[in-house]
Design a protein that fits this description.
Layout: H1 12-19, H2 26-34, H3 43-54, H4 57-61, H5 65-69, H6 76-96, H7 106-117, E1 124-130, E2 136-144, H8 154-163, E3 168-174, H9 184-198, E4 203-210, E5 216-217
Parallel strand pairs: 3-4
Antiparallel strand pairs: 1-2, 1-3, 4-5
Helix pairs in contact: 2-3, 6-7, 8-9
């Protein structure tokens, strides 16, 4: 049975319009992007097969071009469309968090961080510098490399915060492994940064770890 033969409330497009985008599963969202299936399979069936093949929606979205195009039902045209969608999402969140905008939603912050850091093959430590009303001053990549390698230097972070006249900061780094739980090194460096910036009355509001799933928040887990 093709999707057009399904009850209206179960079709991905109609479901999105009636219940909102958050009501859709990963397979249903992907099916809307695919638009059509293959002989004998609906777009939703094909989407489920692709999620099984790649292991997750994130893995599919981050797949290299050759790997993506090699999958049945995909190809260069779909790869180009996907890259355009991902870049539009990045630019959208960059505009939302542009200089002078206040941080009003933790979910917007999470979405922005995910768009910036998810899928990178190397570890990056970044900082969102804020003024005393939690308006964005600037987003900066500060260090590359593993935190276990002691590559994050509190003195350099403090220098950048003072340079930008920041009153508060939000840290973020990614785990290329996909694990979004903090390591002991993550906890240690966060505490050192908090102490260092506290000397200048600069508040550390949160530290996010971007891996698979929802970015991990130190603040929400009582670690800041």
């Amino acid at each position: 049975m093709s999707i057009k033969d399904w009850p209206a409330e179960e079709r991905p497009r109609e479901k999105l319009l009636q219940r909102g985008v958050k009501s859709l599963t990963d397979a249903e969202l992907l099916a809307i992007f695919l638009r059509v299936g293959t002989p004998g399979k609906s777009a939703v069936d094909m989407a489920r097969d692709l999620l099984t093949e790649f292991g997750s929606l994130q893995a599919l979205l981050n797949a290299e071009q050759d790997r993506f195009c090699a999958s049945h039902g995909l190809g260069p045209a779909k790869y180009v469309q996907l890259q355009a969608v991902l870049e539009m999402a990045r630019r959208h969140f960059e505009e939302v968090l542009q200089r002078g905008n206040a941080l009003t939603s933790p979910e917007i912050t999470r979405a922005y961080l995910s768009a910036q850091l998810r899928g990178l093959s190397y570890e990056v430590f970044c900082c969102l510098f804020l003024d005393n009303q939690h308006r964005v001053i600037v987003w900066e990549e500060l260090f590359r490399g593993t935190i276990d390698g002691a590559s994050v230097y509190p003195r350099e972070v403090a220098k950048r915060a003072l340079f930008h006249h920041a009153a508060a900061v939000i840290f973020a780094h990614n785990h290329p492994s996909g694990i979004n739980e903090p390591s002991q090194a993550d906890k240690n460096i966060t505490e050192k940064l908090k102490q260092a910036l506290g000397l200048f009355d600069i508040r550390v509001l949160d530290h996010f770890i971007v891996g698979d799933g929802n970015p991990y928040s130190f603040a929400e887990h009582g670690l800041i």
